[in-house]
Amino acid sequence: MKQVALIGSPNSGKSLLFNRITGLNQKVANFPGITVDMASGHSQSHADWRFIDFPGVYSLTALSGEEQAAIAGFTTLLERGELDLVVAIVDATRLDKGLGFALQALSLCQRHNVPMLIAANMIDVLERHNLTLDCDGLGGALAVPVIPLSARSGSGLDLLNSAVEKLLETGQPPAQASVADLIGGDEQGHWRAQQLAEQYGPKGDLLVVSQTRIDSWFLHSWFGGALFFAIMYLFFQSIFTWAAPAMDAVESAIGWLAERVTPLFPEGLAQDFVHDALFGGIGAFLVFVPQIFVLTVVVGILEDSGYLARAAVICHRPLRFFGLTGKSFIPMLSGVACAIPGIYAARTIESPLRRRLTYMAIPLMPCSARLPVYALLIAAFIPAQSALGGLFGWQGLAMFGIYLFGIVTALMVTALVSRSDSQANQDLPFVLEMPPYRLPSWRPLLRGAWERSALFVTKAGQIIFIVTVIIWLLGYFPNYGSSLADSWLGQIGRFIEPVFAPIGLDWQYGVALITSFLAREVFVGTLGALYGIAAQGDEFVGLADRVAASGLSLGSGVALLILFAIALQCVSTLAVLRRESGSWNLPIKLFIAYGLLAYALAWLAFQMTTLFSG
Amino acid sequence: MTLWQLPAGSSATIAALDEKLDSRYRQRIRELGFSVGATVRCILQPGLGAPRQYAINNSVYSLDRQVADAIVCKAQP
Fold first, then answer.
1. In which element (H, E) is residue A51 found?
2. Residues of chain A numbered 306-345 and touching chain B (CB < 8 Å)
């Protein structure tokens, strides 16, 4: 087995090349620092080549968490002699930036007698602008092969494979006389990189000019801000309004299937289980898969286009007011899909204080696990009226409102905490590389959305299945579903009912809430199973209709929304927070604090809504 | 003058990096190309105190006031 390291500066296309070579689906995006962990996989063309994708770094001097991990991982493998080849990827359109680190890596490879080659990525962009890169000249000056390729289109991959094969066979280390000759006496090599880029790289600033032209709109003082809000509004609308037809189709399909499959089982226990637990419980949460898919695609479009870095710039100054930095924006937006990648993405924030504040904000971001609960409650209370041919609707607006509530709460928390810290006004420098604008790559985007949806179904589905079966069994026995209130679950529910009575929730919602502490979306499955038992024998009805008919008051609905918006009901998030922050201190404090805050605000909202709605 | 004072569309040569900026950040902006003698161009100045855009060769970076004020430069004619 031969081990090959893929290294390079942030946003040079390492992960895209890694995916091309291995056929895997490592997350890629068009902004610096998306890869925060190492990934490995075998080459599709040579099963005995194992490629390791390292997070991007600007130099061998680490500044942020993901850089430390990447540099430590790379140097350790080199020192142990576990690398057979190093492939340094440089962005051919911005050669000086990538070459600085490539030169440092080359000196390390020389020291450890490991061969290296340079992959000049994004050669297709140069060709499109009639620009060229002198690969032979650069390769000659560095005495290493320089391979032009495009990880995006796949062109040049054959050349890369041949070069890798040759170097792995010969094991020939870089033939430089000395590191000092190579980098011209400058220990960082960046000055030398600039000279080499000027000599062999593309001439002129055509790419900067075209990028600036678009930036003058997206970063315009007023227009840029308005555009930002418009994009964010469309983002939240898309999750509800655009996914609605697919959600309706899934719900109808589940209902259709339930009506045909249930009679195939013998009447009694088996038929009740299939109808209530399987179609009622599991089916209720499958309805929300199209929303997860749409959400992932829209986040992916924003990431791929290069707009996220602009959004970070626009948000930097407002976020400073709340103790955060523009760099907090990307982890927080990732948190809208799922808190876990958001927490990992926060590694790119160099300041420990800002990173900690970002950790505090992420669990309050409206993640996709909250989506089924929000969608269920909104569908039960808000009329499904829409305008402009279904592009905008009240339900979408309500979704925007509850999402905004989570975001505002997160900002309030970080503002309060940062103001109580004497160091809060220091340690805020902001330096961010602006990636070029690109059209999204649809294939990896759709594949990523498909895999995320599949993960939602398989991972959350397992927990939901187990919880649903337990809830159904507890609700069905000992009286075989004749009375849910007198079942074992009814007895447990009445025991915990006093906790939820002040916010107008009966024992059934109390049980669903308790189970949701495993994972938020379990709430939907539990309610589905509970209402399935209660409405035994009825034909299959959508869960939102059952919630609407359950007598849940508007005040309790609002209280439930607030509870879910704030409480930290996610075991996985707590575990990842512990790993990234280095102790249980932060996750435990957040779990307790957000739980108490959620309950207090839910109670307040219930009282006020009840007062005003009479 | 500092880089923050450089008008949009103008170029300058970097003369020094002020030590008031933490050494780690000085190191990072040097790695990005903001080293003494390099030519930098201010390409965009969004309003409301937002970070400004600077081009070094074919790369564009966004720097906030704290960083750009720590880069001493000499305007090019």
1. strand A49-53
2. 309, 312-314, 316-317, 326
